[in-house]
Design brief:
The structure holds two protein chains of two kinds. Chain A is of the alpha+beta class. Chain A contains eight helices and 20 strands. Chain B contains 24 helices and two strands. Chain B has a two-stranded antiparallel sheet. The two termini of chain B are 22 Å apart. The chains are: A alpha+beta, B mainly alpha. Chains A and B meet through β6, α2 and α4 of A and α19 and α20 of B.
Amino acid sequence: MTAIAIERVAKRFGAVTAVAGISLDVRDGEFFTLLGPSGCGKTTLLRMVAGFADLDAGAIRFGERRIDRLPPHRRNTGMVFQNYAVFPNLTVAGNVAYGLKARRVERAARAERVARALTLVRLDGLAERWPHQLSGGQLQRVAIARALVIEPEVLLLDEPLSNLDAKLRVEMRGEIRQLQQALGITALYVTHDQEEALAISDRIAVMRAGSLEQIGPPAEIYSRPASAFVAEFMGVTNLLTGTVRGSVGGRLRIGVGGIELSARGSEAAKDGRVSLSLRPETLRLLAPGEAPPAGWARIEAVVGRVELLGATTRVECLAAGKVTLRLALLDLPPESIVPGAKIALTYDPDRVAVFPTA
Amino acid sequence: MIVLRSRSVFPLGVTAVALVFLGLFLLYPVFAVFHVSFLDKAGGFTLDNYVRILGRSFYRQSLWNSLGIGALATLAATAIGVPLAFCLARLPVPGKSAILVLAALPLVLPSFVGAYALVLLFGRAGIVTQALRELGVFPGSIYGTPGLVWVYTLTLYPYVLLPTLAAFKAVDVSIEEAGQNLGASRWRVFWTVILPVVAPSVLSGALLVFMETLENFGVPFVLAEDKPILAVEAYKLFVGEVAANSASAGVLATLLVACTTAALLLQRYYLGRRRFATGARTAPPELRVGAGLRWLATVFAWGVALAALLPFLTVLVIAFLEYRGPVLHPHLSLGNFVDLWHRSSRPLINTVMLATSAALGAALLGVPVGYVLTRFRSRLSHILDVLAMMPFAIAGTVLGIGLVVAYNAGPLALTGTPVILVIAYMVRKLPFNVRASSAILHQLDPSLEEASINLGVSPARTFVTLTVPLMLGGIVGGMVLTWVTVASELSSTVILYSGPWATMTVVMFEALEGSGAGIAAAAAAVLILVTSLPLLLVYRLLRRYELAMT
């Protein structure tokens, strides 16, 4: 049960800055995710916490205790690796007992804790199996049991699901989240998959090129991105640039191409240029003759392309002849939605995210 | 590649030990050889030794002979190795795996025994020579260039064969199909696509052949006769039939190191620049060819593999025949072995003891060094990387001379002790051990070790309790190969051994100089058995690592 404090941590590999002076606090018992594209420094940061990468500057603390100078084998972290890293020369039980032996836990207590850990990850009965007899999902459970059985101060997970197939991935992430909550353990999780991060985390730190872009709970990161990068990384969006024309009652009026959008906010950038993100699912199709809800704006557009994806339909349309908008409709679209058709859209101005132009 | 944190004590410790070892027993002795070559009688600096030695056409000739014969043998080995590799990779030749086993053998069998077999068969008093003479045919002499090139070609061609075979197998078949699809004939695709893709492997193998010919001592000692060869002349000057002359020997040794180093650097440079990633998942299929070509390929492949082993078989047979003086009689007899044993059983025991110590020592040093070089990168490890490959470029003769010069006296007076032999072997076999263990480690996921460290086991204990057991097959294989090649080592042994510590190779060497043809044959037979039996026993282990040699 430990909070992690990462303080102005930096790391360079030759000319490349892997981590550029990052500070963040992971609360006790929190499920915290480092999210970003490959090469953003998230794995390096995790490996610094584990002790597998040295810090050039900064400090890392577990609670009050500074740990970044400790050798990795004395940090008492439990790490789950991307490719499981289950020892092929040991049985399932041998793997799980490995860290307990290193801690000189006596035999009887060891056996009991191994059995409990295996029950926890639903592997009872497989204790004497060899790793080569297990499936990918089972190997992952062994890796998790092995990391949890030593009762680590923090649990570190380095893209633990990326080697599993899509269906198993969804199942396992639910289990990992459940285990973490049941044990109340602090977890630091690394992934490049934004859906996974949204589904599993208490808070997410989005990273880019060694720096933090934004920290916050999943809903905030998704709906109120702090930058164009975060907006796009977290999912499909309409990323537009425009000029602030004024503000009325806590609403900004922003000219984008030939249309005007409104968004929550009162301050404009100095030169008036802003970017805004409008998620496709926030755009709503108005039925012919239907008026938008009070305070919501209305946009006229012409349908361009229609893509049927199954559960959703993606429609691309053109407003004022030059602004492309994508909208996502649940279920099948009305039959009137065909290329060339005139449609009317509306949206909640509160759900438009505005940020300075990059 | 994931790199572990480098600040921990374990890699530093291993690096330090290895650097001290190589500094003491590789750098310092080699430096001592250079040093002595620049000294005058009073101990001052001079270039006179170079002027004097290079002023004599005999020694100049030894340099040209070494380079010329090496070049010829390299061409011949390539001319055999590349087609053979293609036959084994792409043509329907029966018994491929058997051919591969046989083809790898000449690399570890003592090459001077092969040379000796050639003398037994085609030498002045050779069996075949005499038979032909009775028929009135007088064949040309095999001494000098023809014999040397012949022996080098047949013992060293596997250095070209093995990497080239791997390269042919790694060519993705879709490259070939793309070529044909674009309108090139099969033949054209071979010359314009496949051959260029495997060329780096061929060249790197060929340079290895060249280096081996330069530093080989036993083969020219047996076969060169009055043709001066660098490695042999350096030895003769150093041991001194009239008066030992270490300064002159140092000059020749320095020239030898210069040549081998140039070849090694060229090989590294070329290998570093040219590597086409073809990454075929499966080896390309056998070509469908007519019966004629199939027969030709079969005869060629089996012919080469057997021709290379034939001399060794001959020696085995001859060893069991009766010698009366220098004359061979066609009766089966164990007399030669009895003579050999009667003289002394020490050499065989020495060979076994020295080879075992050296194999253990080389593994004890080489495996941790390979581990550190693969898993922990630092500036220091770069130096170690270069240094650990250097023994490749130092001929056994040169290392032997250097160790004697360096440790003749002083606090570390090792000359004359068995320790100096073991050290020489460890140094010479270190590159192979390091390479073999890195090759295995590249197949082991580094996160296994990280997982162990993360669970609370220190890096050093992780290495011993997790990594070493996982590498065990490869380590044992590497040790057997080291053992076998040490047992047949001649070039540094012959300089470093002292009276009671003579090995089987020395016995054979001395018998060659004297008149004990029977004893020489028996000693050769023992050497062949000692080297080939352990290999065949652990062959399965070795298959994966044979390529680590190149």
